[in-house]
Write a structure and sequence with these properties.
The protein is α/β, with parallel strands linked by helices. The chain is 30% helix and 29% strand.
């Protein structure tokens, strides 16, 4: 039986600006990612890879084309429903961490709970996530007291708080030293192998690409190649 497509893009286009300043960033991108894949998306700066990641994550809307994630067609979701899906099903990890400096480590990890419909404040769940990334002892510290690697671990714990089935990562090792970057990659592989988490990782680093089951290459807003196993996918049934 073929794997379900947990991420599906069909002829997605995206531009910014108007008139002579208009710039085409995505020029008809189509791709399928199966549940449980670890996929690297590589390309030069300005190739459209971060824009594509933002569209998959519902942080940006397309100009044309279809996006379906976890069985939900984005065109059928208003902003509130899209935000709910994003909070429940998708975790985000960024190069610059995006931690709030005035909050403690624990409070940063708890942030997703404030957007939950029931307003659940899961301190135990946050501590569990921090323990999983090996940084529970730092729960009372603030980001300014942490190293870059520790900050990224906090960001990963926050992304894991709602136990998402999908992790979207934008240059997650870009600000880390070699050893810490290797540890983060190994943790991603563990999440993928043991928990079945689907990962789409934007990267320019070869060490990240080597960990992926599939590598997609993007240039000038178009997918130009993929390396790794081909995946036979069943169609998404949009909700």
């Amino acid at each position: 039986m073929s794997d379900p497509a947990i991420i599906q893009l069909e002829d997605v286009k995206k531009s910014y600006g108007e008139g002579k300043a208009r710039q085409e960033v995505l020029r008809g991108v189509s791709l399928d990612i199966a549940k449980g894949e670890l996929v690297a998306l590589v390309g030069q700066s300005g190739s459209g890879k971060s824009t594509l990641l933002n569209i998959v994550g519902g942080l940006d809307r397309t100009d044309a084309g279809r996006v379906a994630v976890a069985g939900h067609d984005y065109a059928r979701l208003d902003d509130a429903r899209l935000a709910r899906l994003r909070n429940d099903k998708i975790g985000f990890i960024f190069q610059s961490f995006h931690l709030l400096e005035h909050l403690t480590v624990l409070e940063n990890v708890l942030l997703p709970s404030f957007f939950a419909p029931n307003g659940v404040h899961g301190r135990d769940r946050a501590l569990e996530a921090l323990d999983r990334v090996g940084i529970a002892a730092y729960e009372g510290r603030r980001p300014g007291e942490l190293s870059g690697g520790q900050k990224q671990r906090v960001a990963i714990a926050r992304a894991l708080f709602n136990r998402p089935g999908i992790l979207l990562c934008d240059e997650p090792t870009g600000n880390l030293d070699s050893e810490t970057g290797r540890e983060v990659i190994e943790f991603f592989k563990q999440l993928n192998r043991d928990d079945g988490v689907t990962l789409l990782i934007v990267t320019h680093e070869e060490r990240v690409s080597q960990a992926a089951s599939r590598v997609l290459r993007i240039a000038d807003g178009r997918l130009v190649a993929h390396e790794g196993r081909s995946v036979e996918l069943s169609p998404v049934v949009p909700s």
